[in-house]
Structures are given as C-alpha cells and as structure tokens.
Amino acid sequence: MAFIKQQYYHYLIASSAGLLLALLGRFVFATNYLNDAGGLLMLCFLLLVPMALGAVTAHFTPRTASKWWRLVFGPFLTVLLFLVTALLFHLEGMICVLMIFPLFIITAGLGALAYYDFTRNRDDKTKTYVVAAFALLPFVLAPLESQFTAPDEYRRIENTVVIAAPAAVVWRHIVRVPPISARDLGPSLVDRLGFPRPVEATLSHEGVGGVRRATFERGVEFLETIDVWEPQRRISFSIVPNTATIPPTTFDEHVTVGGRFFDVLRGTYELEPAGPGRTRLVLYSRQRLSTRLNPYAGLWTGYVMSEIQRRILEVIRRRCETDAALASLNTTENTRH
Q: Is residue 160 assigned to a domain?
C-alpha cells in the first residue's frame, strides 16, 4: 500500500507549496540586507509570510475539500510542518518556534480566509493572480519596511512575596545569594524553553558602587552595579550582561539579553513591613523591547522575566523562613536554660 493514498496527493501538494513559500521567506528575511532591518522580526515576515502561506495552502487545496479544511486545518498543518522543519534543521530554536506559533496560526488562517473571500465565484485565472499577489506581497513590502526603525518600549516586571522573617534576615539573603540548585528552584516551563537557571549572586563590597555578579547556568553572567543602597529597605542596580563569559550559542539571536531586540536594564529589591516578624519583598526589573511587534513580544518576555523572578523570590523566602525559624528555636532554648 502506498504511503499516501492517491486522493490525498492534492492535500500534500497544498501543504508542500505553503511550506516552500514559508522556507523561502525564512531564508530571504535572514539575509544580511533584511537582517540588518530586523530580519525575522519584521512585520512582513511575522504577519505577511504566514498570511501568504495560508493563501497558498488554500489555493492548492482540492475544491472538494470542506471549508473547515481549506480555512483552518490545512493552514494549521502547513504552519506546523514549517515549524517542525525549522526545528529539525536547526533554523530556529525552541523558544522562537513557540513564540511565533500562535501568531503564525492566526495569520495563516486569516490569509486563507482573505484568499477565499477574494476568489469566491472567480475564475481560475483570477485565483492565480490573487495567490501570486499574496505570495509576492511580503517580499515587495520588505524593502519599504526596512526604512523604518523598530520602536523602543520599556516595561517593568514586578513580583512580590511575603516572608515570615524580619527585614534583617531578608536583607542578608538578597545582597548575596548563595548557590542555588535545580532542586531549590523546582520545575518550570522556562527551563524547557532553554533558558539557563540562576546559580548564585556574589557581591564585591557593600554599599553604592558594589558589584553583584549574578551567574546563571552555561556561563551566563550579569554584572549588577549598585547605585541605591538603603539597608533593610531597598537595593537597586543597573544590569549589564558579561559578554566575555556568555557563549554565543546560549541564546538565540532574537532573545539575547543585551541584544538589539531585548535587554534587561535594571533590577530592584524593596523590603516592606508586613506585620510582626513578616516582610514583604518586592523584586522588579526594567526591560527594553525593540521589535516591530512589541505588544506581542512583551507577552513572552514578560512571562519569562516574571517566572525567573518568581522562582528567585521563592528560594529567598524558603531560606529566610528557615533561618528565622532556627533563630526562634535557639532563642527559646536559651531562654529555657
């Protein structure tokens, strides 16, 4: 029996045509000319290429196919085929594939729907012109888009935890963070996405001008220069990635911290009273996004940063509460004696 039944050949042709167009877009937008203008983060690639993929898939789908297949299932399978191909041949990393997957699914469906509306009750010649227009549009508009600079957007990501320990104990655990194991952090989706886990934070000296070295797995290190030092109340620092220690293969180009698309600029810990023997610890960071689709990209970078901060705060909370409990126990024993 043949691997694919003959009646499904046309569906295979439809998906293959959409795949070839998407791969062509992937390589064209990664060229030096367009890469300098944003490359794979240009709107023409993120929006118009998947729309063209959807239109091409719908165009080659057999006329006997249902409307659901033409407008939904066909484009969905073609997008899936493209992204799996990108992963298998190491064209993109997992994080980038997951980030663009929802966007590609939606825009591919819109492209198929637009093609269907434009060509309904039209002859084959008109349909050919329409699908050709969809296929050419990303490449025609790309040089125009390349003339515009991607906007910078600055975002604040904040996490809070209440710790059953006094501020003096909490302060000791934030100025320096002893080594953290994977077990301390627990499982998280960001690990599966390939982001290095935090390892520890050292401090050159206390006070303004002190440098914290925040290290992560796989040689990732950030230099955090303290410019606000208010003991047991607030510590704030600028953040610069130590490019000398970070291997070039650790991050994908599009999510590199300190790169042209994304950066983390500042970090701040604030301690607030939360009742007798309790402290509210707030950690917030300031990040820069420089893409043509900042609202969408911000959903992902915001989630990743929030998850990293949340896990660090949980480690600090457990350590502080353990120290506070031991101190209370020692005090009780000393009182008895």
A: yes
